[in-house]
């Protein structure tokens, strides 16, 4: 029997809360300059990340063919991504409100900006663009463990927002999915999309002696504020990729 959403007003309401933010990617509107900016960012970042990012990230780039020239077309990318983990990306014109964002994640949908930075802003961004959203986030959505973990953080995020505890899940997300580090093959490597997509902070997060790196626990991370307007003074280091997947899958809003 098929699930009829019209018989379930809650599911229908949850869906409409995020569907209103989705737009067409408008891939044909990207100019030759836009595609050249993508290619330059991609080449520079991959060269920087080799040996500094978790192996699953580089695997994801290959599996999704993100190294093909130009800004990825979401339909084509989604064919590969959905076949692997059931995740798909939709285009949005800018930041999505937290409630809609976590509802999307719970449905294995990731929002991607329908624009790319200019060449004059290669290293400075006011809002996440498609390079951050696709290059930074999507490779890990092709990893089965992170695919589950991202759906789980979507569900607990919805609960947190309903409970008026949005900051708790924002910190959890920030210190793992965006700016998390993790141990792999005896080294500390980049996990988070904010680091993987940043030329300056990727290196600094691993190598800057003045930055604190603390072992990740859900309790510590959710108790720790973060900066969204500057480099982080503190990064959380998970014991392994499996450990951060488990932590996110098990995360429960404390009483
Ligand atoms: Fe992000």
Nutshell version of this structure?
This protein has 255 residues and is of the alpha/beta class. Helix content is 51%, strand content 11%.
Notes on the structure:
Its EC number is 1.14.16.1. GO terms for molecular function: iron ion binding; phenylalanine 4-monooxygenase activity. This is Phenylalanine-4-hydroxylase. It holds the Pfam family Biopterin_H. This protein has 255 residues and is an alpha/beta fold. The chain has a single domain, classed as Aromatic amino acid hydroxylase (Phenylalanine Hydroxylase, Orthogonal Bundle). The chain is 51% helix and 11% strand. The strands form two sheets. It has a four-stranded mixed beta sheet with strand order 4-3-6-5. It has a two-stranded parallel sheet with strand order 1-2. The longest helix is centred in the middle third of the chain and has 19 residues. The protein is globular and about 50 Å long. The structure holds fe (ii) ion (FE2).
List the helices and strands and how they pair.
Elements: H1 9-19, H2 32-49, H3 55-63, H4 74-85, E1 88-92, H5 98-106, E2 109-113, H6 130-141, H7 144-162, H8 166-178, E3 181-184, E4 187-190, H9 193-196, H10 199-207, E5 212-215, H11 218-222, E6 234-238, H12 241-250
Parallel strand pairs: 1-2, 3-6, 5-6
Antiparallel strand pairs: 3-4
The chain binds fe (ii) ion (FE2).
Domain Biopterin-dependent aromatic amino acid hydroxylase family profile: 1-255
Pfam family, one: Biopterin_H
Binding site for Fe cation: 132, 137, 178
Looking at how many chains there are and whether they match, the oligomeric state comes to single chain
Class based on secondary structure composition and strand pairing: alpha/beta
The radius of gyration over CA amounts to 18 Å
| Main beta sheet | 4 strands, mixed
**Ligand names:** fe (ii) ion
Distance between the termini: 37 Å
Poorly predicted tracts of residues: 1-10
Please estimate the helix content.
40-55%
CATH domain class? Mainly Alpha
CATH homology-level superfamily = Aromatic amino acid hydroxylase
- Number of continuous helical runs: 12
- Architecture, according to CATH? Orthogonal Bundle
Mean pLDDT: 93
